[in-house]
Design a protein that fits this description.
Blueprint: E1 7-9, E2 12-14, E3 22-24, E4 28-30, E5 38-45, E6 50-52, E7 57-65, E8 71-76, E9 88-91, E10 100-107, E11 112-114, E12 118-123
Parallel strand pairs: 6-12
Antiparallel strand pairs: 1-4, 2-3, 5-7, 7-9, 8-10, 10-11, 10-12
Protein name: FCRL2 protein
InterPro entries: Ig-like_dom, Ig-like_dom_sf, Ig-like_fold, Ig_sub, Ig_sub2
Domain Ig-like: 27-121
Length: 134
Amino acid sequence: LQLHHSGSYSCGGWMDSKVAPWAQSAPMTVTVHGVPLSGVSLSVQPPGGQVALGDSLVLSCAVAAGTGPLSFSWHREGSGASLGTGPRLELHHVGDNDSGQYRCRVSNGDSVAESDPLNVTVLGERVPRAGGDP
């Protein structure tokens, strides 16, 4: 069901009768309600939210319940601007100013829900990876 399926419904049918060959039920009003958003959660790669200076960070936002369409926005504490609008936020070549608390805000047009904050810490120097990654 979608929200636009709300409306007045009735059914009818041909009867095997000469008195009333067509019969129709009284109309019934059907209202489809959206499910409010709940259970917005964040996951982070690398795990723990600790990332070396210059490396990449990926945050993912998930919704446990709620009907769509869903729109996402990402926010860092102390910054009023939205950092992204999809279910994933990818930060490449992170810098010192990328440390902080991140949140995901989700809206379905009827309700808004927000994740708990997730702490991201950018470590002072880049940690070399195995295999000689520069």
